[in-house]
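Escalated from tier 1: NAP holo job.
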Amino acid sequence: MPAQLIDGKALAANVREEVAAELEELGPVGLTTVLVGDDPASDVYIRGKHKAATGVGINANDIRLPAEISEEELLQLLADLNADDGVDGVLVQLPLPSHIDEAKAIEAIDPVKDVDGFHPLNAGRLYLGRPSLVPATPLGIMRMLAEYRIETQGARAVVVGRSNIVGKPIAHLLLQGHATVTICHSRTVDLQRHTLDADILVAAVGHLHVIGAEMVKAGAAVIDVGMNRTDEGLFGDVDPGAAERAAYITPVPGGVGPMTIAMLLKNTLTAARARRGLVSGVS
Ligand code: NAP
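Tier 2 regenerated the structure:
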């Protein structure tokens, strides 16, 4: 029997409804995004985030800066946004031009406004299992697993990819969910030996169909984070043939992508609540 598709689009619509309802209780919430330069892919991502944010009623402000802006000017802008009481969430779209130190820019964002969850304080809190702002993609994956009642406790989870944005944080969240977690990467020897063991397989590599159907355990839940643009369209990291072996699989497009944007909105609300003293631990 082919795998059940995990419908990220439908789940994302539910999350947006939740956010809209919560906003009514909370009052005005502000999200400011900063895009440096005119990278077309970044422009698409930023427009998607704004459409979603304004759609639920978040006050979204889209700051565009020329690619030549100095690091100092960017850091000053971030300091101004930190001090602005109307701004609950700040997001700097990555990648930044090479003359700007990305780590410095991320660290310049007030951790309580860090809706991407990339600040070292938030990353450290996640590592310690304490409340924090968690990157949106892994947060969305955990929500998908929960919605489809895919048990993490005791499961063998294999994460392929170890980026700070996806691989490492999802590994930590799965560990918090009491899975037994293996992290694979480009130097892993015999990747298939690991992936074949996975009850939950998360592919976050960015290489078209790097996970072949034969690498997936029968009955596994497969989360395909990969976004590989080709002339034929957008494809994931997992060969579509894997749907014949898996029990659950996320489609690309329509899986992890829409959930990532929806969870960014959730994070904006979490930041707003934390700033109003309504949640503890996130500061
Ligand atoms: P990244 O920073 O480039 O990390 C890729 C990871 O894959 C690295 O850890 C790398 O290992 C590993 N890797 C590379 N080749 C490999 C191979 N042959 N076998 C096993 N591991 C290999 O990428 P990322 O930011 O995590 O993104 C990964 C993918 O997810 C991209 O396609 C990206 O566009 C997509 N993405 C989608 C969303 C969404 O919302 N849908 C969000 C974020 C990212 P090393 O560490 O050894 O180099």
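The chain has nine helices and eleven strands.
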